[in-house]
Amino acid sequence: MSWADLPPDLLRLIYGRLRETGDFVRFHSTCQAWRDAAPATLPEFLPWLLAPGRDYPSSTAQLRSIFSKTTWCAPRTYGLRKRWLATEDGAGAWLLTSEAGPAPSLRLVDPFTGAAAAVLPPFPAGSRTGGHRGRIPYANGFVLADGAVVLFSIESFHKHGCFVMAAVLRPGDAAWAEGKGILMDCASCGGSIVCAAAYHDGEIVLADVLQVDTVKLRVASGGVLDVIVTPIRKDPPWNCFPRKLQPQPRRIYTFKSRGELLAACLLLDTTKQDGGGAMSVSVYALEPGEGGGGRGDPRWVARDAWSLRDRVLFLGFPASFAVDAARLGGAVSGGCAYFVHNSWEAGVARRKNVPEACRVYRYSFEDGGAAAVEELPTGAGWDNELLITWFAPRPSAIAPVREIRERLLQGPNKQQGAPCATSIIRAPRAAFGPPFTFFVGNLPSGVGSLKLEQFFAGFGEVTDARVKCSFGFVTMAPIGEPDDVFAALDGEYFFGHVLRVKFAEERPEGPFVMPLLAPNKARK
Hints:
Elements: H1 8-16, H2 21-30, H3 32-37, E1 48-51, E2 62-65, E3 70-73, E4 81-87, E5 93-99, E6 105-109, E7 116-120, E8 140-143, E9 149-158, E10 161-169, E11 177-184, E12 188-189, E13 192-193, E14 196-200, E15 203-207, E16 212-219, E17 225-233, E18 248-257, E19 260-269, E20 278-287, E21 299-303, E22 311-315, E23 321-324, E24 336-342, H4 348-352, E25 358-364, E26 370-375, E27 389-391, H5 401-410, E28 419-420, E29 436-441, H6 449-456, E30 460-468, E31 471-478, H7 482-489, E32 493-494, E33 497-498, E34 500-503
Parallel strand pairs: 4-8, 22-24
Antiparallel strand pairs: 1-2, 1-27, 2-3, 3-28, 4-5, 5-6, 6-7, 8-9, 9-10, 10-11, 12-13, 14-15, 15-16, 16-17, 18-19, 19-20, 20-21, 22-23, 24-25, 25-26, 29-31, 29-34, 30-31, 32-33
């Protein structure tokens, strides 16, 4: 009996057990008989990890399956800027790209196919673009079920406070509505605002280790966006641990599951010696106030292991989500949470000489243990847990069999996102231009020369990177034109701070003025 002669019932049984997107594509491309036997309903696929890559146009995002140990390239999108946007339910993603030019344009791109789904109006002149045409001035965002796009950023303005800035584009609107509000007591880690976000009941819910805020966005007359910030609770239950005792809350992940808003708190005991500390995850649900009609202050109530026994949590930034274990066909058992943890981000590597590495962990709510599942590849965006998120692939259609066979015969095409069996994909070596030097200002505290070099390496070949007196000095040979690299770097977000970049031959102004090298040397 040949493969094409397998009974349809057996083929449907095999099809029902497919949980990897790559296996699903191979099943359809085997032969016409297999394709005809496949049900019309798509199975639930196992999530991938997404490393978005750099904002430079030649940077390619990578998608990693920790279950099959395989990495794919996302279709390459050419644009000066890009932002990954979560869907309202947290289980998908969109890519917002920006192209500079006389008429800067914004596009929503399907990251699975690379096709542009919508062309959006540019940001208003004089907004937070800082005079750079084509810049995307917001770090995070959502695409809602009705097609509305919500963008926001959180930026510190003093030790215990920060701004939240937002923009909304509703279906049919010809222009963005922008506004801002003030958050107090924002927590930070190495200069980065560590704040999880979820869209729930018309509000952005921001949670960090100090407090929880709701941000109501209301588009008033004239296209003005009112940003109303209301603290839910200034002492959430995950902040009740004494500051000098272990473990301590390290990350908060917010997401919706079965109609309720959940917050998962990653607790880390840095006194342990296992290269990442003893980790645990606690889950809380936001319940309405106890007053009549749900009035009163909402409160967070802990969820026990039994209530999570049939769910799998995938925790990441900027979005997290939960999946019913039954929908995964037994590929993953319920009652667990997957998350990415970086020893450098937790401060363990710096204090205990632990090698820096991002690892994927699986935490069991039943026995309270966390085990490392995989150590992620180095570089290519896999070295910062705040940039790594989970992505649920949902192919909407399968190409004709002839087209699939032609692609397989041609071999993997990195730019088109074809599957690749290697554990890490490297782009072809680019041609570098002549070297030059950047001044880099507004660096977050605690960031050293190595982190600065790794960040700039996505834009060219770095020959020297130093951090002195909170300023950075980077000498590099760029990929492409220096002006394009400058436009991509100046105003870019780096661990929660907006970088200020200048060419070495330019004299910085204002707070960017360099300190004198010698006390008796007059300023020119």
